Amino acid sequence: MHSNVSPAKPAQPLLAESCGAFADLGTFLPLVLGLIALNQFNAPGIFLGFGLFALLSAMVYGRPVATQPMKVIAALVISMELTPGMMQASAMMMGIILLLLAFSGAIGWLAKQLSQAVSVGIQLAIGLQLLWLGFGMMNETLWLGVTAFALLFASRWLPMAYLMMPGVLALGMVWQHFAGTGSTINAAGSLMDLQFGWPSKDEWLSAAGLLVLPQLALTLTNAVIAASVIGKETFPQDAAKFSPKRFATTSGLANLLLSPFGGIAMCHGAGGMTVQTHFGARTWRAPVIFGSSCLAIAVFWGSDVSYWLGMIPMAVLGSLLATAGLQLAWSKRLLDGKPYCIFVILATAFTCLAINAAAGLAVGILLEHGRRLGRQVPASK
């Protein structure tokens, strides 16, 4: 009997899930490799943390939910050459705060104040920030970064678009090899080096003001509330799974439990979820593939693994980061929204960029609250 199903068809979804699983490397690798190469953090501990966090996400959500470093904390730790103890303290404090907000109901209240216009404004600001960071990384080898970005952008109009991302990574590694620049990282260490650690009193105090406060607003907006919105819009049939409380809970547990064993401050991310689904991820398989790969790196970390990770050019990672930023920043509401809606979006985004995410959130909520009050005031006779 003739079959209408091609033998290759069953393999394509898994291939798409695999490509989507690693689509967020532009956010993940630069910060992780920076902590390992520049700050001498324990690499197996970091990858073990992300592996377990990704598997937890697969179990809880059943969909592609990104796991990322907390950007502000990681960037400050790298740039200021802070200690692993400072990272541990900030991660555990973020974990405690997120769990308190989740189970007190505060995170649910905050999410209800967030209209679609405010959410789009926050996503626009974060997307533009990721674009800017990505373009900065691409500038290291400009032609390579621009070429990679153009290929990734054009992939949306090509069949099997999910193949473009691994293809770009592979071509970048080939170029790095023949260019003779070598690996950007070659750190030693093994999973056997893991030790339970606990921050000192000074590290707790310093981390609270220096790392936790700047990170908190971004985490609440991007990793909890905006991620919840993205999840519900992308997978409406599973909307109940993507509550802000659940995002705050999984992030809180991961940070509180894994950081004493070498994990860094981690969260979910709206941009990561967007770019993963863009490149083919649809089910729990994507976070399982990513998490299992992280666990394998943690177990087999050594000169070979670190060498090949370091062979991915920074410009190519920048193109991935810029792609994630573009996906997050764009919304059809920027074109078809009502004038006041567009005003709220732009005002929220501008305030986020000019001050910070907390200020942008406050401005957006105030503008929407003013509109609600205006509707309740009866017209004068």
Please describe what this structure looks like.
With 381 residues, this protein is mostly helical. The protein has one domain (14-185, 197-370). 71% of the residues lie in helices and 1% in strands. It has 18 helices and two strands. The protein has helices spanning 11-21, 25-39, 43-61, 71-80, 84-104, 106-112, 116-138, 142-154, 164-179, 201-234, 244-258, 270-278, 285-300, 303-309, 314-329, 333-336, 339-354, 357-376, and strands at residues 68-69, 266-267. Strands 1-2 form a two-stranded antiparallel sheet. The chain starts with 10 loop residues before the first helix and ends in a 5-residue tail after the last helix.
What does the secondary structure layout of this molecule look like, with pairings?
Layout: H1 11-21, H2 25-39, H3 43-61, E1 68-69, H4 71-80, H5 84-104, H6 106-112, H7 116-138, H8 142-154, H9 164-179, H10 201-234, H11 244-258, E2 266-267, H12 270-278, H13 285-300, H14 303-309, H15 314-329, H16 333-336, H17 339-354, H18 357-376
Antiparallel strand pairs: 1-2
Helix pairs in contact: 1-13, 2-4, 2-15, 3-11, 3-13, 4-10, 5-10, 5-11, 7-10, 7-15, 7-17, 7-18, 8-9, 8-15, 10-11, 10-12, 12-15, 17-18
